Amino acid sequence: MMQAAKAMMTIRNQLMMLCALMMTSCMGVPDGIKVVNSIDANQYLGTWYEITRLDHSFERGLVNVTATYSLRDDGGIKVVNRGFNPETKKWKEAEGKAYFVDPKNTDGSYNGKLKVSFFGPFYGAYNIIELDKPYYNYVMLCGPDKSYFWILSRTPQLPYPIKQHLIAKAKELGFATDQLIYVSQSTDIVDYEAGRHVRH
Hints:
Layout: H1 2-26, H2 41-44, E1 46-53, E2 63-71, E3 77-85, E4 90-100, E5 113-119, E6 122-131, E7 138-142, E8 149-153, H3 160-172, E9 181-182
Antiparallel strand pairs: 1-2, 1-8, 1-9, 2-3, 3-4, 4-5, 5-6, 6-7, 7-8
């Protein structure tokens, strides 16, 4: 009995160490990448339109993709990702939560390193690596490695020079920009106000 109990304890400890290792690997910043500092969390809230991304299973085939962020009661950020599947003619929506990883800066701002979860206690990295400041009109994001990459904008279309500048920077940083998916955003969408997020 004692040996069996010890064996179970060893297995449990190994599993806990494995889970901790997996969590750490999902929370990092890719080599050679720096996150943006001094982010105003309130100004970051609102709706963002997905301009381009690297392919991954949970968004595959979706168009008109948006991410909407709002404050949670616990101080975190509510995340609602939404996209339309043209084949099924249905919207797909996922709700999650995000938290800034580092403590607040002395001026009340944050560094651009967040953890986001859509599946219970499991979190993944959400790294803000380029941000239009002070207007917050576009943002470039990545995950824990360079296989996760997005460019988002406050409006369904991003001006070509800005988009090309961001893609060129992403290429310099080592992202596979030749594999980017350019997300179709329907011109019929009219329920947005450009600049509404900007403080007056």
